[in-house]
């Protein structure tokens, strides 16, 4: 049963897709997640608070290190992540339709590297906002 998830915390540096990927790959600690997302731990705490308050993730004590907390997606969070990934796939199909998978992979890698470069050059800049600032009005996304 899908939930209407209207919470979209702002993660500095456009790290939203990377956060989802890390929740799929393993159950990260807060510290490891901050390092992998290249954002300050104190900022990540606020992001995690927002996601936890929305019922999308929960912090669980690490059985190997009681000082550490693992970030675990809730059932509602997994549904929200699935829906977000479905929307991304739909957008990619629209933009990259007909391209072979190796070209689609290359585009995703390039886009990821571009977002990381924008973050490295200007950590306070959201890569999505940076891209929108150079798009002509006709190419601006709706909303």
Automatic annotation (TrEMBL):
<feature type="region of interest" description="Disordered">
    <location>
        <begin position="1"/>
        <end position="21"/>
    </location>
</feature>
<dbReference type="InterPro" id="IPR036388">
    <property type="entry name" value="WH-like_DNA-bd_sf"/>
</dbReference>
<dbReference type="InterPro" id="IPR039422">
    <property type="entry name" value="MarR/SlyA-like"/>
</dbReference>
<feature type="domain" description="HTH marR-type">
    <location>
        <begin position="1"/>
        <end position="116"/>
    </location>
</feature>
<dbReference type="GO" id="GO:0006950">
    <property type="term" value="P:response to stress"/>
</dbReference>
<dbReference type="InterPro" id="IPR000835">
    <property type="entry name" value="HTH_MarR-typ"/>
</dbReference>
<dbReference type="InterPro" id="IPR036390">
    <property type="entry name" value="WH_DNA-bd_sf"/>
</dbReference>
<dbReference type="Pfam" id="PF01047">
    <property type="entry name" value="MarR"/>
</dbReference>
<protein>
    <submittedName>
        <fullName>MarR family protein</fullName>
    </submittedName>
</protein>
<dbReference type="GO" id="GO:0003700">
    <property type="term" value="F:DNA-binding transcription factor activity"/>
</dbReference>
């Amino acid at each position: 049963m899908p939930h209407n998830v209207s919470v979209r915390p702002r993660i500095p540096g456009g790290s939203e897709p990377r956060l989802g990927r890390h929740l799929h790959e393993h159950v990260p600690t807060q510290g490891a997640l901050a390092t992998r997302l290249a954002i300050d731990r104190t900022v990540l705490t606020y992001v995690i608070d927002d996601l936890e308050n929305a019922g999308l993730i929960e912090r669980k004590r690490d059985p190997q290190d009681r000082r550490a907390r693992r970030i675990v997606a809730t059932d509602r969070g997994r549904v929200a992540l699935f829906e977000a990934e479905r929307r991304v796939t739909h957008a990619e199909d629209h933009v990259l339709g007909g391209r072979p998978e190796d070209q689609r992979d290359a585009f995703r890698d390039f886009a990821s590297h571009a977002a990381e470069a924008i973050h490295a050059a200007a950590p306070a800049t959201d890569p999505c906002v940076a891209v929108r600032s150079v798009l002509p009005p006709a190419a601006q996304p709706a909303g």
